[in-house]
Design a protein that fits this description.
The protein is an alpha+beta fold. The chain is 44% helix and 11% strand.
């Protein structure tokens, strides 16, 4: 009897250790360690893929940022046009600098969903970002409004992810939160490499860089004309580099 009790205690101790131990990081093919995703007209690109399109558009955004959602609504058709033509590759940098101002970790959760979709349903990445980073989806007041996970699932169903893809996203989405945290720290640090591209001397969102692929020489788009002009500004920046 005493031997059985000792074995039970040992097993319980092992279970406690397992519960307290951090989950191992998962290997990914499309999402980088810093939580970025590169897409072309086919969807997410392998992290070690060769660069193909002549122009790269880097977009830093917080899913809880109203300006980011409005920017996405205004410019998505422009991005889609150039993606379809093979003119651009887009690098998404979802970050969570507003996460602490949301009631339900919305920035980190939504960003993690984006990365998980990019990994497990790569061809749907652009479409999912288009749906999520939108004023139609974003909570009106993320400081008090909660967004249930089932709403993200509804979007995945709407854009035709398979049941297996949705299951993979749901099962693994939590693993991607740490990458959103890492990306946020990298972007907002006082030593951030991105400061050199900030026209005002500080980073902000949406933060959009348009460069020849493989280069970073241009400043982030200033968006001084407001939302009325952002699509034209983005299109002109891309077209100028295609000449």
């Amino acid at each position: 009897m005493r031997k059985i009790m000792k074995m039970a205690a040992a097993m319980a101790f092992v279970l406690v250790l397992a519960a307290c131990s951090p989950k191992p990081e998962i290997a990914t093919s499309y999402v980088t360690d810093l939580g970025t995703v590169r897409i072309d007209k086919e969807g997410s690109m392998k992290s070690d893929a060769e660069l193909n399109a002549p122009v790269t558009v880097d977009i830093f955004f917080d899913p809880a940022c109203p300006a980011c959602a409005a920017y996405g609504d205004e410019t998505n058709s422009t991005l889609a046009k150039h993606l379809d033509k093979g003119n651009i590759e887009v690098v998404y940098h979802p970050i969570g600098f507003l996460n602490g101002q949301t009631v339900d970790d919305y920035s980190n959760r939504a960003g993690a969903y984006i990365l998980a979709v990019a990994e497990y349903a790569p061809e749907k990445t652009h479409e999912f970002v288009d749906k999520i980073v939108s004023l139609n989806f974003q909570p009106t007041n993320p400081a008090v409004d909660k967004t249930d996970d089932k709403l993200f699932v509804e979007v995945m169903k709407d854009i035709k992810l398979t049941d297996e893809e949705i299951e993979a996203v749901e099962e693994n989405k939590q693993h991607f939160v740490s990458r959103i945290v890492a990306s946020t720290k990298d972007f907002t640090s006082k030593d951030s490499e991105w400061l050199q591209f900030a026209p005002q001397g500080y980073v902000f969102t949406p933060f959009v860089l348009v460069n020849k692929t493989g280069e970073r020489t241009q400043k982030a788009l200033a968006m001084e004309g407001g939302l009325v002009e952002v699509a034209n500004e983005l299109n002109e920046a891309i077209e100028a580099l295609l000449e």
